[in-house]
Amino acid sequence: MLYKKRHERRRGSHTSEEPQATLEIPQRFTVTFTDEDMQEEDGYHNRLPYISGYLCEIKMSKMLADGCSTVIILPLHILKLVNISTKDLQTTRVMIQGFNQERQRALGKVSLDLMIVGLEKTSWFHVIDSKSTYNTLLGRPWIHSNNVVPSILHQCLKYCKDGSEWMIKAYENPSTIEESYFADAKYYQRNKTSEAHPKEEPEAHRVAQSKIN
């Protein structure tokens, strides 16, 4: 009898004319990529989208937005470049694993101010003592906190701010001549004049005027 009553209640709930409660999810923003955003004409390349910005008010090139990294990584020599001592690092148990599956413990973590054309955020950087092709690896914590959508194919990053969609173009020549021994440098050899700090400041280009609810 108990089962029958429960079954009738469930069956009755489907035939009821009373309005059902619905979950409303507000729309935050929409980012789209088109062929017009392609920085390479044919779209065929093997490049990483390096950008530049300011770390602790010091201009920094070769920042790489990487959605595969769960942390923001800062090489030890860059930490010294921004005049911060390892004594200022906080202890962390985070282990960093490279593409060759080798693991190393981070020397520590530190909270630093980072500004990249329109995006200003204080973030936690995990410091490692290792050579790398980047000066800063901007992992998912930075990407998600800034609502950034990077596209390796289009060689740019997009984000929404103040009701508009904005785009940051990656640099065509992120490496200096001295860094040309890096494996990925050959993918940028088409342009002969490589500079660590481009003459023009990076800009965020407004893509569209779209209202964000």
UniProtKB/TrEMBL annotation:
It comes from the Eukaryota. InterPro entries: Peptidase_aspartic_dom_sf. Residues 1-13 have a biased composition (Basic residues). Residues 1-21, 192-213 are annotated as: Disordered. Residues 192-206 have a biased composition (Basic and acidic residues). PANTHER family: OS03G0439900 PROTEIN, OS08G0508500 PROTEIN. This is Uncharacterized protein.
